[in-house]
Automatic annotation (TrEMBL):
Pfam families: CMD. It comes from the Bacteria. This is Alkylhydroperoxidase. GO terms for molecular function: peroxiredoxin activity. It comes from Caulobacter zeae. Residues 14-96 form the Carboxymuconolactone decarboxylase-like domain. Keywords: Oxidoreductase, Peroxidase. The lineage of its organism: Bacteria, Pseudomonadati, Pseudomonadota, Alphaproteobacteria, Caulobacterales.
Length: 143
């Protein structure tokens, strides 16, 4: 194997990898719509330039019934009417936690989330964003 080859995290640290999968399953069990989870995973993957994850999450979203039109406009979600206020609140939260800009006030974003989601759902969304960012970093480092 060359020094520049991608890492096989699933083989190198299988217990950690399986724990990540278990955490992902726990987030999915929190009761949020799978369509929302797909959008958030895809948007974070776009921001993180994880081509593998973008391809995977786009396919999964389409397989679960998401439209090409909404997926095509996900990068400009703020400027189109394709997304509900609840989806926009979750997308704003996803971007804030993915990009970690220094001067974002998270308080209004938390308030907007609370307007659309329960405390449990908001925590599950936060965990989802953390997980997809983790998966993106594993994906980028492996490909």
């Amino acid at each position: 194997m060359s020094d520049t080859a991608g890492f096989r995290h699933d083989k190198n640290v299988p217990a950690v990898y399986q724990a990540f999968i278990a955490a992902e399953q726990a987030v999915a069990a929190a009761g949020l719509a799978p369509s929302l989870l797909h959008l958030l995973k895809l948007r974070a993957s776009q921001l993180n330039d994880c081509a593998f994850c973008v391809k995977m999450h786009s396919k999964e979203a389409r397989d679960d019934g998401e439209t090409n039109e909404r997926l095509d406009r996900l990068t400009v979600w703020r400027h189109v009417a394709d997304y509900t206020p609840a989806e926009k609140a979750a997308l704003a939260w996803t971007e804030a936690l993915t990009q970690l800009p220094a001067k974002v006030d998270l308080a209004p974003l938390r308030a907007d989330l609370r307007a659309h989601y329960s405390e449990v759902e908001a925590s599950a969304l936060t965990a989802l964003v953390a997980m997809i960012n983790l998966w993106n970093r594993l994906g980028v480092s492996a490909h």
